[in-house]
UniProtKB/TrEMBL annotation:
Protein encoded by which gene: Mitd1
Biological source species: Dryoscopus gambensis
Domain MIT per the UniProt entry, residue ranges: 1-71
InterPro entries per UniProt: MIT_dom, MIT_dom_sf, MIT_domain_contain_protein1, MITD1_C, MITD1_C_sf, MITD1_N
Protein name: MITD1 protein
SMART domains tied to this protein: MIT (SM00745)
Amino acid sequence: AGAETVKRAVQLDAASRFQESLVCYQEGIDLLLQVVKATTDEAKKHRYRQKISEYMTRAEDIKKHIEKEKQDGKYHKQIRIEENATGFGYEKLFHEYLTEIVSEVWVEDPYIRQVHQASKYSLYNFLRFCEMLVKGPCKVKTIHLLTSYDAGSGRSQQISVLEEIKQSLSKYGITLNIDFSSSIHDREIRFNNGWMIKIGRGLDYFKKPQGHFSIGYCDFDLRPCHETTVDVFHTKHTKKM
């Protein structure tokens, strides 16, 4: 497992996907250290330690490179989610950026509402996103949501659902501030540790499940996605919060 993880790290490194490769290097190093502890052959231990030292050096170099890009305001990572792709649940997509110091989150998405039956899942998607924040490892205290009003008779239900989410979050010590705009167009999510994530389709990039008891209904990692692009920036590269 350790060898496969560092192999993946090297591949991501070669593709200039540095943030992802750093995570894989760190996971791979931890796994290889466990192997060293369990190995009694001194020659093998020596080879493993040499490799671990090489990977640690490269991981440190990548960490410095990422930090410099952040400081220079040049960090930009793009993820392409293909049509019908799976494995892009919110935890997988956001886990790199939800560090323990995250206490405040901004969500701008015009479609956290129920325009018609086919798009009702946007409200559930926002709820699932909030559940991810509750689980941590971040210590979120405030979530700011900026969206647009639903049209016609759907407005009262939209407000009712968002109020229910707000009350539920308050039981976990989290304040949800809700604002509405008739001119909002951009979709972006910002964390107060400096990361900004722009998703072409906003939080609603999952396809409608085939049924309430079909695989992927509960586990978003197993649910097929619509094609979309995810752009990740550090806020020095964009507007200030």
